[in-house]
Amino acid sequence: MVDFRRPDYDTPRVLRHVDFMLPVLALVTAGIGVLMVYSATRGPATDLRPAETFFLGRQARAVGVGVAAMALAAWFGHRRLERMIWLVHGVTLAALGAVLVFGNEVKGSRSWFQVADSQFQPSELGKVTLIVVLAAWLGRTETPSIPRVLMAVLLAAGPVVLIVRQPDLGTVLVYVAIVAGMVFVGGLKGRHLLVLGLLLASAVVVVLESEVLKDYQIRRLMVFVDEETNTEASYNLEQAEVAIGNGGLTGRGLFQGTQNNSALVPEQQTDFIFTVVAEETGFVGSAVVLGLVGLLLFRVWRIGQMADDRFGMLLSAGVFSMLSFQVFQSVGMSTGIMPITGIPFPLVSYGGSSLLATCLALGLVQSVHMRRHEALGRRVEPPRRDQRA
Amino acid sequence: MFAALTARLWYLQVMVSEQAVATARSNITRVIPVPAPRGRILDANGRVLVGNRTTTVLTMNRHDLNEAAFTDDKVRLMLTEIAVEINRSGQLMKVADVERALSDPSYGRYDDVPIAHDVGGELLVFFGERPDRFPGVRVAESTVRSYLYGDLASHVLGWVGSVNDFELSQRRPPAGKEYRLRDRIGKAGVELMFENDLRGTAGRKVVEIDRLGEIVRERGDLFVPPVPGDDIVLSLDVDVQYLVERELERSIHLARSREPDQNPDDPSRLLPAYDAPGGAVVLMDPMVGSVVAMASYPSYDPNESIGGFSVDQWAELNDPANNLPMFNRAIQGEYAPGSTFKLFTAHAAWHEGVFGVGAIPAADVEWDDPGSYVLRACGDVDPTDPPPGCRYRNAGEKKYDRVDLIRSLTVSSDVYYYRIGESIYTNPRHPDTAIQDAATAYGLGLKSGVTLPFEQDGYLPTPANRRSRHEENPVAFPEWGWSTGDNVITAIGQGEVLVTPLQLANAFATFANGGVRFAPNVVSRVVTRDGTTVREFGPRALSTVDIRPAFQSRVLQGLAGVTADEEGTAYWAFNSEATDGVYFPLEEFSVAGKTGTAEVRGKADTSIFAAFGPVEAPTHTFVAILEESGFGSSVAAPLAARVLEKVFQGKVPEAPLAAERYARSAALPLCVAWHQWRSGDTLDRLEEADPSSSEAGGPVLDASGQVVVRGVQVDCEDLIEDVLDVFEIVSTVEETG
What we know:
The structure holds two protein chains of two kinds. Helix content of chain A is 67%, strand content 3%. By secondary structure, chain A is mainly α. Chain A has one domain (15-39, 53-388). Chain A has a three-stranded antiparallel beta sheet with strand order 1-2-3, covered by helices on one side. Chain A is globular and about 55 Å long. Chain A starts with 20 loop residues before the first helix and ends with a helix. Chain B contains 26 helices and 28 strands. In chain B, helix 24 crosses helix 26. Chain B is elongated, with a radius of gyration of 32 Å. At the A-B interface, helix 10, helix 11, helix 12 and helix 13 of A face helix 1 and helix 2 of B.
């Protein structure tokens, strides 16, 4: 009998610790995403016109690229990245800076490059690099000092400022969530929390008072506070809620969502993709999708707990913060419990950059899982977790 | 976090889902009404008089035109080009017409405004290919009303037009037939009276649309098919109607062709000219009160209403200078009945016991009519130079020997009725208004109750209503007293007595059928498209008139004498062709008739003839009234003879469709050329009118005399024969006149 817990010295050590839950959950979720993107963009097939498959093809290709990226990241390993965080951070800042100059402007935002037939959005990949950089920076010491935490905030401020300039409020919020989550997990004391809270509050005031936010962004936020404020902006929310409600308990059936087919919800293949899920699969389907994502998040959380060093742990915490915030915000705005800001639903929303970033992040988390025993040989001090145990 | 999201989802998707489902449904579906075809109008024999057809309409969109931001010059050029193309496709249209149609205020900014109907299908391609040069110009098919016999019976049928604000707010159409802006509804005649039956129930089509309003797909499961309107079956016979209209028109032209007569009192002056501006004929079945034919001249073609009457057309149709073509003289025209009224005076005299009382001899006593009558009330005055208002004359002061009741009708002695008129008013044993009461019993002065709109009620003057009319409006009616003279002229249907042709026909029908006064019917049935009868209009008896048999037989004898006795006023109309009349088979079909010649101040006389026959068992009652046309015996009576001859003998020719009539008129020049070529009498003219030449697409003539116009074949031989018929009549009139 083979004892699976016994190290198998015939295979490389890292491969023995591959976590299968992570890629399987990611792939299933992404698969549902492809289907939903197709449903949202196919348009009703008529005698004259077959269903639109352009978005379906591209999203499927993006999933393929994403899976490869996940494998690549897992193989490359998070530790190799740890040694080159300044390079990574530099490249990120350079890319974000470049997009402000050379990027394509769409609807008043300058957030992506045209690369061949694809669009590349540096701010999406910037989330992952920020997680790596912050994990490495905060993981260097057991308990980060206040200067170290402030330095971490400063590190994050670079890309955030550049993204605010695009402007892309939604993505900025994700960055803020990542920083908050990682600083919190990375060993924050009560007084630190107070300082950070004050910083955040003053930042919000500065952002709202300055001319950084576009009018429409403020309007959207106002709508969240008071639905009567602006009919044009509340239209989005209204249509989204109608679509979700129209799904009922069991949904209208795949491709049968009337709100969806009539393209009444704006941005329904990207930011509002959850309305399609909710309308066509109902409460049951929505719960299943949320459950899948929840399981995935749990897995990421668990891997963070199992990590053999602070870097891996913080890395997982960052990815967890990123994904959970995106899910909460994306579903929350569709259901009207969060203000409307354009944030993609991880793995499900249409968009190659977002999918790639999520896959890379999950690949790095996988790497944390695969290499969780390496530290034993590399570092003298045992992980904190083991001390506790 | 997940709990919050799940709870929110549960709330939205399960707890308040119903609301959202309803919103979602209305969000994406639009209901498009599907117009229902209007019911048809059929004649008594089931021939379709009014149907529906598809037409090609050219529309323009003002919004699209504005969007194109053309300069004024460019717009003008474009409108000119559109007018040119419309003309080229066969519809006459001026640029001003296009502009006027385009500025119709009843259309909204984004509406497609119809510019021209019945344009050629090739325009669809022409404008479809040039959207940049002609922004907003579209050519599309639409369903419109089709009056298959053209102007035939147009006053009975009526016409359709866009619903106006007043109708939209005031009418209460039945459920499912609600009016929407610019719906076309009946405006006159049967189209108006039976609007609720003719109007179909619109169906609806449900389509799903996207955010831009583009139709995504149709919901076949929610489609409600339109229900066509019910068909109306008239009591009219289209062939008889055509015969009546043709003969009426011919009589009008004959009347106009006559020179005015000399004034007998002043030979240096002429009497007023025979302008003959219009006339009406009513032909009824007296036994059930249904209208077989109802004609009013001049008439109009309701097909012109299809695109909506243009301002010019409308003004033209309602211009008194054009004799008001839209005016239905048969029910709206009010005329003095003249001598035809004597029937009712006689009725009053007989039934009130006037004969043999006082100054009036018994009905069968013969006495000599000296040609004029001096009122007894004037006392013993010089009969050759009485005071004004005392002496009343026969027409032409003609003397009649040995006149009794029968002969008074046959020869139309006025003096006979002057005496009765005076006696009834002056003799205290008779009610003052006995004549008017008798006329009222026959329905004169009352609306007949025909199912047609805008009927007039005529007027029967009495001492009481003259006074009340004066009190209401002293300026318009300065007369308020009533004198013996008024009663005397009322007795012969002059003075203020006014009747409509239909009233007079119905009154004679009442006498003909023995005393039952019906409300005339023009519609006999309402049937669904598949032929099931929805409603039937049987005879509607309103009241009865007590007609004593002794009186009836005398009157029948007297009226039959009008056509059969050599002294009868309509004898020549029924026994000669030289007088526009016919040799009528009176032995087989005896006709009781009465001529009427009503004087109208400053104008030529109104020519009237009322008749029914056959005397033994009447099947038809006929009334013709022609304005400013002369004696009843010279115009209206021959018209009656020509019509009744064919009707009684069952020789009514088939009425041609409007398309055939058009073909005949278009073929006429070619046929004349062919006729001349064949008869060979005018070889020189032949060269001018070469029968072989014809413009592209125009009428084509072949050597056997067949002309084809727009697919309708015309035989030149028949056509020429018909035309020569008319010429012969006109030339005989000129010779005899």
